[in-house]
Amino acid sequence: MENYLELQENEQQLSLQDYLRVLYAGRWWILLTFLIVLLATAYFTFTTKPVYQAKAVILVETQGLREQALFDVNYLNPQSTVITNQIEILKSRTLAERVVLAMESASFRDSLAIFRPNSRGSYMIFREQVDWVMEHLAIVPKPETDIIEITFSAGSPFEAAQIANITADTFRELNREYNLTEFRDLRHFLEFQLKKKNEELRKSEDILRVYREDENLVSLSDRTKELIRRVAESQGELEATMISLEAAQETKRNLEKQLDERRQSLASEVTQISSPLLLELQQEYARLVNDKVKYESLIAQEESLDPKVYEVELKRMNSKIDAVQQRLEEEGQRIANSSMVSDPLLIAQNLITGILEIESEIKGSSARVNALREVVEQYEKELALLPGQGLELVRMERQVQVDENTYILLTQKLEETKIAEAGQKEIVRVIDQAIEPEYPVSPRKTLNLLLGALIGLGLGIGLTFLIEFFDDSIKNPDVLEKMGLSILAIIPEISQKEITGKAAMSNGNGAKENDPTQARLVAHLDPKSPISEAYRTLRTNIQFQNMKNKQSTIMVTSSTPKEGKSTTIANLAITMSQMGSRVLLVDTDLRRPVVHSIFNLQKDKGLTNFLVGKMSFHDVVKPTFVDNLSIVTSGPLPPNPSELISSDMMDRFVQESGDNFDIVLFDSPPIIAVTDAAILSTKVDGAILVVKAHQTQKNAIARAKNLLDKVNANIVGCLLNSVNVEKAYGSNYYYYYYHYYSYYGHDLKRRKKSNAVQ
C-alpha cells in the first residue's frame, strides 16, 4: 500500500489549472495565429467573386413508359433504374454539348460569361465551354420521389437562372428523342418493307391473271386448293418470321448505336458477351422452336391425330419454350450486372441486357425460319407431283396468297407501330422554372468569419500544446526527482526592473543605483520577497544536509552556461551570512568570472594570485557591504585554469578557507563545458547543481549528473531556478507558496507604513 501511494505521488498529475497555465503562457502564439487566420479569411471572403445558384425542378414519370413491342420483342426498362438513368443522362457530356449549342443560339448570348473573353483576352473553345457547364452543374434527386433538382452555379443571378432553364429544356428534348428513336427507325423500316411488298403483290396478281387468260384455266381441284392454302400459310408465316428476324436485327443495331454513344469501347464486343450457359440456353431455345414449328405444320394435319393429344403436346412445348426464355432473360440480366460490362451509367447496362435478349430472339427466329423452310420444301415436293399447267397455276396462286398475307401483316404492324409512337408521351416535365436568386451562396461572409475565428483559435491552441509537447526542457521539480536528484529549492524568476528599482530606493547597502548586475542580490535588496524566502529555503535545506554530513565547503555549478549559477550562489551566501555565519564566496570560474561584478569589486588580487604563490590567503580575502560575507575574486585569468584547480595549492586553499570560515561556497564554471567543475567537486564536501526552468534540457542534466558520478562527487542536490509561475505546472505547492509570501511581504510593508505614520 505504501509503495502504491508512493508511486502515485511520483506521477505527474495535470489538472485543469495546469492546462490553463499552459494556455496563458502561450497566449501570444494563440493571439498571433488567431489574427493571421482571421485576417486571411476576411481577405479571402471579401475579395472572392460571389457565386449565385439557381434551381430548376423536373419530374420524371416512371409510369406509361414505352412498352409496345413488335413481334413480341419487349424493351427492358425497369422502373427501379429510371431515375438513376435520367441522372446519368443529365450529367453526360452529350447533354452539356447540347446546352452549349443552345446558349450559342440564345438571344442573350453576349450576357453569358462563357462567351466573353477572360482577363487575358482569350475565349474558351467549345471543349472548355462544355467542361465549364459540367463543372458548375449539380444534379440532386429527392429521395423516394421522381423529382430531380437541376442546380447551376454562375457569377450572376441572370446567368445562373438562364443556364439552369436551358439545361432543363434541353434535357426534356433529348429524353423525347431517346424515347422515339426506336419507334421512328422501326416505322421507317416497316414503311419500306410495306412499299416493297405492295409492288410484289401487284406484280404476282398481274402474272396470275395473264397466265389464266392465256391458258384458259379457271379453277383447281379441292385437294389442290387445300394444298395451295397450306403452302401459302407456311410461306406467309415464313416471310413474316423473316421480317420479324430483320426487325429484331434492326432493333439490335439501334440499341448498339445507343450503346456506342455511351461506351464506344464496348460497341464492337457486345455481340461477344456471353457465357457457356447463355449459349447453351440459346441453342436449346432454337431447338424447341424448331420442333414446335414442325409439329404445328406437319403432324397437326394428320386426320388420325386426336385433337386433345395435339393440344396437350402443344401446351407442353410452349411450357418448355417459356421456361427456357425466362432463363435466357435471367442470364442476360446477370451478365449485364456482372463485372464484364460494369459501367457507372446504369442505362448502358440496360441496353446491354436488351441486346442480349434480342440476340436470344434472333436465334429463336432463325430456328423458326429454318423449320418453316423445311415445311415449305416438303409442300413444294407435293406440288411438284401435279401436272404441268396445274403446277404452274398453283405456284402463281400460292405466291399471290403469300404476298397478300404478308402485305396484310405488315400493314397491321405498321399501324400498331404508328399508334405506339403517337402514344408515347414525354416522361420529363418541368415543375419549377429557375428564377434569379437574390443572394449569393458563396462566399458566406458571416459563416466564413466565424469559421476563420474558430480555426484560428483552434490552431493557436494546438500550436501552443505542440510547442509544449516538443519542449524537452525542465519545467517542474518532478522530472528532476525522477532522474534521481534531490530538490533543495525552487527559485522564482527575478524581475530585473523591480529589483533595480528597489536598489535605487535602498540606502547604505553598497549597491549602485540602476545597476542590473547588482540587482541580482534580491536577498539583500528585498529580503521579504518570495524570491528571498526561496533562497532561505535553499539555505535551510543545505544546513540540514550539513548537520548530517558536516559539509562546510560546497561547490555550485550548472550543466550549461547562463542558468543563474552565479546569481544563486551570491544570494545563497547572503542568506547564510544573515544568520551570523562567517561565509566566504570564492569565484573559481577562471574563464568567465562574474562574482566580482555582482559585488562591485575588482577581480585582481584573487584566487589565481594565491594558487601561483604570489599572495597569502588573507591577502586575497575581501570584505563586502554584507555583514559576515567575504569574497575571493578570480584574480587575473590564467592560461591553464584546469591545471591550477587540480594543483596542491588548491587543496591548501580549500583547507585554509574551511579553517577560517564557517561556510565556503565555490562558484565554478559549467560542468559540461569544461573539466574545472568536475576537478573541483573532488576537493569539496558537496556539489549543488543549478537547473534553469524552461531552458535546461533533460539530456544536459543527465550528462552533468553522469560527469559528477564518474568522479564520485557528493551531489547535495539541485535547485530549479528562474521558474515562471505563469508557465509552471505540476507543482501546486510552489504556486501557493509564492502567493503566500507575496501576501506576507505586502502585509509587512503595510504595517511598517502604519507605524511610521503613527
| Domain module tally | 3
Distance between the termini: 59 Å
Structural category is alpha/beta
State the helical fraction. 55-70%
Major beta sheet summary:
8 strands, mixed
CATH architectural designation of the largest domain? 3-Layer(aba) Sandwich
Uncertain residue segments: 1-12, 64-80, 265-272, 339-345, 507-511, 735-758
What can you tell me about this protein's structure?
There is one protein chain. The chain has 758 residues and is of the alpha/beta class. The chain folds into three domains: 16-48 and 443-470, no CATH class; 181-425, no CATH class; 477-757, 3-Layer(aba) Sandwich (Rossmann fold). It is built from 26 helices and twelve strands. It has helices spanning 2-10, 16-25, 27-47, 82-90, 93-104, 126-136, 157-215, 222-262, 276-297, 307-337, 346-383, 388-422, 445-470, 477-482, 496-505, 522-525, 530-549, 565-577, 595-598, 607-611, 617-620, 641-645, 648-660, 676-681, 698-710, 732-757; strands at residues 52-60, 137-141, 147-154, 428-432, 487-492, 553-558, 583-587, 622-623, 629-632, 663-667, 686-692, 715-723. It has an eight-stranded mixed sheet with strand order 5-12-11-6-10-7-9-8, with helices on both faces. β8 and β9 form a beta hairpin. The longest helix is centred in the N-terminal third of the chain and has 59 residues, at 157-215. The model is unreliable at 1-12, 64-80, 265-272, 339-345, 507-511 and 735-758 (pLDDT under 50).
Structural descriptors:
758 residues, alpha/beta, Rossmann fold, 3 domains, eight-stranded mixed sheet, four-stranded antiparallel sheet, rod-shaped, disordered C terminus
